[in-house]
Write a structure and sequence with these properties.
Its EC number is 2.5.1.78. Belongs to the DMRL synthase family. Keywords: Riboflavin biosynthesis, Transferase. The chain has a single domain, classed as Lumazine/riboflavin synthase (Rossmann fold), CATH 3.40.50. It is built from four helices and four strands, in the order E-H-E-H-E-H-E-H. It has helices at about 15-30, 45-55, 75-95, 110-140; strands at about 5-10, 35-40, 60-70, 100-105. Strands 2-1-3-4 form a four-stranded parallel β-sheet, with helices on both faces. Helix 1 (about 15-30) links the parallel strand 1 and strand 2. Helix 1 runs parallel beside helix 4 (about 110-140) and helix 2 (about 45-55) runs parallel beside helix 3 (about 75-95). The longest helix has about 30 residues, at about 110-140.
């Protein structure tokens, strides 16, 4: 069974709370166990807890959930781009899947609400698939014919 940690931004919590509910439902549907749910103030703060979660033995993958709503300035672009870059850096550094379930940048509140289920489900599904496939890859051995991990 894949063990997941979920990191949820509290900013725009009317949206991210719904994302959390959908993510928990989809994890259960896929047969994954959610071992941690960590709430952080905003999307920009998500990377602050990722390394700690990735080091835990009872976490196979981490799902990030957040919503960056377009404002009057370019602030949403900076937040979303920097968070996404650091999330990927930490995934590569830790060797554990950390998936991006962050709506935005450029989305307005209505668009974000329309994308809640899609983004939450995709992030959970990617985390579960990556965790399972990494385990299969670790156990796989080449024996003269192509090894396919799917």
């Amino acid at each position: 069974m894949v063990k997941l940690a979920l990191v949820v931004a509290e900013f725009n919590y009317d949206i991210t709370h719904l994302m959390l509910q959908k993510a928990l439902e989809h994890a259960k549907f896929l047969g994954a166990e959610v071992t941690y749910v960590v709430k952080v103030p905003g999307v920009f703060d998500i990377p602050m807890v990722l390394k700690e979660l990735a080091l835990k033995e009872d976490v196979d993958a981490v799902v990030t959930l957040g919503a960056v709503i377009q404002g009057a300035t370019k602030h949403d672009e900076i937040v979303a781009q920097q968070a996404a870059r650091k999330i990927l850096d930490l995934a590569v550094e830790s060797g554990k899947p950390i998936t991006l379930g962050i709506i935005g940048h450029g989305a307005n509140r209505m668009q974000a609400l329309e994308r809640v289920e899609e983004y939450a489900r995709r992030a959970v599904e990617a985390a579960v698939k990556l965790a399972r496939r990494k385990k299969l890859l670790k156990e796989a051995k080449y024996g003269g014919s192509t090894v396919v991990i799917d």
